[in-house]
Amino acid sequence: MKNVSIVGAGKVGQYLINLFNNTPSLGHQISGLYDDDTALIGETIEGVPVIGDLEQACIDAQQGKCDEMYLCLPLGDEKHIMMMLDQLSQSTVVVKYVPDLFAFDLLHSKWMSIKGLPVISVYDTPMSSIVARVLKRAEDVVVASIILMIIWPIMIMIAIGIKVTSPGPVFYKQTRIGWNKLPFTILKFRSMPVGVENNGVNWGNANKKTETKFGRFIRATSLDELPQFINVLIGNMSIVGPRPERDLFIEKISQEVPRYMQRHMVKSGITGWAQINGLRGDTCLKKRIEYDLYYISNWALSLDMKIIFMSIFKGWLNEGFSKNAI
């Protein structure tokens, strides 16, 4: 059992106290809590008394009253951090620094080196490399080609059904925002009469009163999304990626949801990590974006394959995969 001291009674220090107390297997026994706010001395925080200030922490460390000392001070408090490191260097105590909550994202970021200079890649994706982009594109072309060869009879029957039940073009075209915030034309089988468009008042849900009977069927089964495999072959979409949105929604959402624009670091997809986890359309918006960002940060061909197979068996074959996605 190690005797540990914690310097800093703020949120990070309190989190560490609860972590040690709730995880006996770590073998840490808290011997003292210190803070630079002398008014807290004598107070009890999360069941641990504050027994001194920063100078007292250094003195106790030099006297061997603990085995390890965790510094939970804000990164901006450079003066106190450097003072403590200087004093603690005169002791045999193991010293560990825990960044404040503001820096927690950095802990999960990718560390790299440029000629010996340490660099933290905070917002990045494995798809940023040329090799990864080539592999991703090859995957898209191969998978989209195979799927189109399989489904072309279905697409022809849908096209005939649209022509028979409603005059006008087979495809419905709309501008969406994709990779690098560039607009592109997304293709869908037309499910509404010509001249009728869902202008986004009810985002993510088409107005069923404006749909044709056949259109309601292909939309409910997500068959209206099949032409997007053509988008993939063209190169303005991917098989797997965040679902594309319209620019009028992007402007609104980006002001409400942090990091939303990072979805545009990659190509938009027909299916995605968020969709196979049940997050579609305007439901659980923030959670859906979290899943999109997870995919972007952790992309791998194996993850794409997993999403594709889960989309087939969990999505299109069940309740319609992308019907609420756009």
Mean pLDDT comes to: 86
How many separate helices? 11
Beta-strand content:
15-25%
Structural class: alpha/beta
Number of strands: 12
Q: What is the molecular shape?
A: elongated
Distance between the termini: 55 Å
Helical residue percent band: 25-40%
Within the largest sheet, what's the order of strands?
Answer: 3-4-2-1-5-6
Report the major sheet.
Answer: 6 strands, mixed
Low-confidence stretches: 199-204, 316-326
Q: What is the succession of H and E elements? A: EHEEEHEHEHEEHEEHHEHEHHH
Q: What Rg do the Cα atoms give?
A: 28 Å
Give the oligomer, counting copies of the same chain as homo and different chains as hetero.
single chain
Total number of distinct structural domains: 2
Membrane topology: Multi-pass membrane protein
Subcellular location: Membrane
Family: Belongs to the bacterial sugar transferase family.
Protein name: Undecaprenyl-phosphate glucose phosphotransferase
